[in-house]
Every structure is written in structure tokens, then in C-alpha cells.
């Protein structure tokens, strides 16, 4: 049974930082590209950042470039998102997403973690 469990969300003041994590189990982590998405109230879910299976390629949305950094630990089967210089526009539920890029097509979502940026 594949599980993606996000943690680390919470309330932070504008300009602050937060690090959220996604712990995975039940999958061969090193075969999966990992991404973070977010969904704000009343808005579509949007892609935030991606890291490839080897951890050698990282991409992020223009809206978070220079502020957010994605990383992974293939020994611990985890992926993190370090978020700096947060603004109220970053308030959303953040979701972890795994996509198999080497084997049979497979993709999985976590249940999400709430990040609220407010003074």
C-alpha cells in the first residue's frame, strides 16, 4: 500500500519561513519524480516544484522561484519543500505527488498539509 504523508504545515507570518516534508512508503522511491502542488481556497490546484528521481534536476513555478527549494533524500524516502519569504498569496493546502518515470505508469497523491501565511 502506497502512502504519501505530508507534515510541517502551520501558520507563519508574512516574510517568514516554513519547511514541509513528505514521507513515502510502499513504493520504490528512487523510481519516482516528486512534485509539490498547492491549492488555495476557490482556486485550481497548481504545480509548485518538481525534482527528478535522481535529485539532479529541479524545477519550480515562476511564482515561487528564488523563494522555495525542493529537495529529496532517497535514503529516507522523503521529499521536502523549504519555503522562504512567504506571502499571504502562498496560503494553500500543499500536496505531495509521486510519478513513476521508469516503470509502469503510476502516480500517487498525499492528503495535503495546510500552510497559512497571516499576521
Q: Specify the helix fraction band.
A: under 10%
Number of helices: 0
DSSP strand (E) fraction?
A: over 45%
Q: Ends: how far apart?
A: 40 Å
Shape: globular
| Structural class based on helices, strands and sheet pairing | mainly beta
Low-confidence stretches: none
Query: What's the rounded overall pLDDT mean?
Result: 97
Q: What's the total number of strands?
A: 11
Largest sheet: 7 strands, mixed
Tell me the quaternary state.
Answer: single chain
The arrangement of helices and strands along the chain is EEEEEEEEEEE
Give me the Rg, rounded.
14 Å
Task: Walk me through this protein's architecture.
Helices cover 0% and strands 52% of the residues. The chain is mainly β. Strands 2, 4, 5, 6, 9, 10 and 11 form a seven-stranded mixed sheet that branches. It is globular. The relative contact order is 0.32.
Set down the secondary structure blueprint.
Layout: E1 3-7, E2 10-12, E3 18-25, E4 32-39, E5 46-51, E6 58-60, E7 68-73, E8 78-83, E9 92-100, E10 107-109, E11 113-117
Parallel strand pairs: 2-11
Antiparallel strand pairs: 1-3, 3-8, 4-5, 4-9, 5-6, 7-8, 9-10, 9-11
Amino acid at each position: 500500500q502506497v502512502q504519501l504523508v505530508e507534515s510541517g504545515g502551520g501558520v507563519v507570518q508574512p516574510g517568514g519561513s516554513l519547511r514541509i516534508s513528505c514521507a513515502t512508503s510502499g513504493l520504490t522511491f528512487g523510481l519516482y519524480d516528486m512534485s509539490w502542488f498547492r491549492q488555495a481556497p476557490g482556486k485550481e490546484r497548481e504545480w509548485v516544484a518538481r525534482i527528478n528521481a535522481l535529485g539532479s534536476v529541479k524545477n519550480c513555478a515562476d511564482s515561487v522561484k528564488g523563494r522555495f527549494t525542493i529537495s529529496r533524500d532517497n535514503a529516507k524516502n522523503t521529499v521536502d519543500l523549504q519555503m522562504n519569504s512567504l506571502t499571504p498569496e502562498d496560503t494553500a493546502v500543499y500536496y505531495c505527488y509521486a510519478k513513476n518515470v521508469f516503470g509502469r505508469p503510476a502516480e500517487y497523491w498525499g492528503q495535503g498539509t495546510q500552510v497559512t501565511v497571516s499576521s
